[in-house]
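Supplementary Note 2. Why include the ligand at all?

Several targets in our set were suspected to adopt different conformations when bound, so apo predictions alone were not considered sufficient. For every target with a known small-molecule partner we therefore ran a joint prediction. The input for adenosine-5'-triphosphate is given below.
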Amino acid sequence: MKLIKLKLASFRNLQNIELVPGKKFNVFYGNNGQGKTNLLESIYLLATMKSFKQAKNVELIAFGSEFALIKGIVERDRVSREIALLLEKQGKKAKIDAKIATRLDDFFGSLNVVLFTPEEISMVRGGPDLRRRYLDRAVFTCDLSYLAAFHDYSKILKNRNALLKVGDGSGIEVWTEQLIQAAQLVIERRKAYLAEIGKLLQGFYSEISGNDETVQIEYRLHGVDQKAYSADPAAALADALKAHAAEEKRRQTTAIGPHRDDLYFGLNGRSARHFASQGQQRSFVLALKMAEIEYITRCFEAPPVLLLDDMTSELDRERNQNLMDFLKKREMQVFITTTSLSNVAVEEMEDNKTFRIKEGRISE
Ligand SMILES: Nc1ncnc2c1ncn2[C@@H]1O[C@H](COP(=O)(O)OP(=O)(O)OP(=O)(O)O)[C@@H](O)[C@H]1O
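The joint prediction is reproduced in token form.
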């Protein structure tokens, strides 16, 4: 999977861009605030329809403009397609080969991306919502039907919460039953994904850290007994909801379910969130991303495009070198941003293209 052309109009500070990236390493350099991250954000949007900064459309459209346009020509198995995303203040419209994309699988899967930014260390350190967001997006990439399962669950949860807010609890059983069913579909898919990623994680962590530390990744049900869940998921969820009934009445919201679950990241048998150093946490996230790259490569039989935002300044020399070795071995297109070319070992990157970004303009 490769992005062979990118056109931007009125996207943030990138007013008018036409770019022909190379098939392997693409390095974008420039001072702070010139548009490097904006460029990666546009590619991410083209793949996922979402901003990795959770930005609203009005923030993505250049100041003073009414809309922004992101257009890319992508190539997979020697077939190229044009993806276009029109961002208006009220919404987004996607077109594939000039036809409006109406179904999910019209749009998704033409371009897959994996993103690594310095901020993503907060996935280890921060609250569970960041880990759930990562997990849901990762599961969805290879399993489009996950989105329907996730939306079903969210709808039922919303209805159940609405009833908890207004009523005396009557009629809740119907929603509880539906919630239990929908929750299982979400949890099972998340767990299945983690089982696969878990198998790959250790190898990549060792590769990146160059030591023999051990890593673990596990799904953590919130307020539900893990063993009871393995034996009988529906009964375990029902029991947990019963046990939380008083709390639910008091707080007027559903107390357990996938919307509260978390991921556990372990390092040498201890919580990476609480005990790992910054460097170890960074290696953990990077290993997770490498595992995701491998997973996507297997399910699409084509590697995703990797977006590395200003990451070279974040890793030490040895980890950097290990990352470079990983990238060199793969037929994967990579977009790297950096403040200075001296931060990245361009001379080691076979088949590289460098671009300078200044005040929203890109030159080779
Ligand atoms: N909607 C918008 N319209 C015009 N300019 C915008 C818009 N949103 C952000 N910008 C501008 O984009 C610039 C930030 O770009 P970006 O985040 O890509 O910087 P960067 O080159 O990655 O810098 P750093 O190295 O500091 O991360 C800022 O100058 C900001 O004012």
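The two ends are 23 Å apart (CA to CA). Residues 124-277 form a domain with the Glutathione S-transferase Yfyf (Class Pi); Chain A, domain 2 fold (CATH 1.20.1050.90). Comparable summaries for the other entries are listed in the accompanying table.
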